[in-house]
Amino acid sequence: MKVVYSPRYCEVYSxxxxxxxxxxxxxxxxxxxxxxxxxxxxxxxxxxxxVHSQYHVESIGRDSHLYELAxxxxxxxxLAARTAFAGEPCFGLIRPPGHHASPSDCWGFCFFNNLAVxxxxxxxxxxxxxxxxxxxxxxxxxxTDNIFCRDPDVPYIHPSDNNADAFLKRAERELKSVGDRxxxxxxxxxxxxxxxxxxxxxxxxxxxxxxITRDYAVEHCEGRRYALLEGxxxxxxxxxxVLAFLEGFE
Length: 250
Ligand SMILES: [Zn+2]
Fold this sequence. Notes:
Blueprint: E1 2-4, H1 23-31, E2 37-38, H2 45-48, H3 54-61, H4 64-85, E3 90-92, H5 114-124, E4 132-135, H6 142-148, E5 156-157, H7 164-178, E6 184-188, H8 203-220, E7 225-229, H9 235-249
Parallel strand pairs: 1-2, 1-3, 3-7, 4-5, 4-6, 6-7
Helix pairs in contact: 1-9, 4-5, 7-8, 8-9
The structure holds zinc ion.
C-alpha cells in the first residue's frame, strides 16, 4: 500500500473548508511512517484535456497558484491510478478535491476532476478498459457523474443511508452488483464521519468500508484499487478516519 503525497498539498489556495490550514497535516500525521509515500508530478495539460475543455483549463489557469496545486492534485491521482494498475493499492492524499468538477465548470471546492482525469488517462494508455467508481463522500459527485453517465463501462456508485450498518451493506451490495471490472477507483470523502458534517461513520465503520472495498477489488478487479481524498472537514477526527479506512483497504 502506497500513499501519494506532496508537501505542496498543505498550501492554502482559497478560503473554502477543503483548503483550510492544517487539514492535510491532520491526515499526514496519522499516515507518515505507516505507509511509504510517493511524490507526484503535476498532470500534463494533455491529461487534463481528456476530461476538461480548453476553456475550463484556461479559466483555472488565470490563478497560477491554484492551477499549480490543482494540476498537482490531478497528477497525484494519475500516479495513484498507475500504481494501483501495476498491482499496488494506493491512496492519494491530495487536494484540492475533484468530484464536483465537470468538463467545463466546477463548484464545491473542486477545480479539476482528479479521479476522472486518472481513469481517462488509464483508458487512453490502453492499460484499462473498464472501471467502477465508488464515491463514499457525503455529497453526490455530480462532476464525476456528468463525465461518465453515458459510459456503461464506468458505473458510478454513491450509496446513501442514515444508518451506518445499512450504509455499509448498501455499498457492498451495489459494488457486487457491478461484477468484474479492470479497476476500482474510489472518491474517498470523509465528511460522512462521526463529528463531521454527515455525523454517521465512526472509525470501525471506516475500517469495515476499507475491508469491503478491498474484498470486492480482490474478487472482481484482480486486486487493483485506489482511493483519492475528497471531502472531510473536522481536523480532530479526519486523520483517524482516513487511517482506519486504509487499514481495511490495504
Ligand atoms: Zn463532500
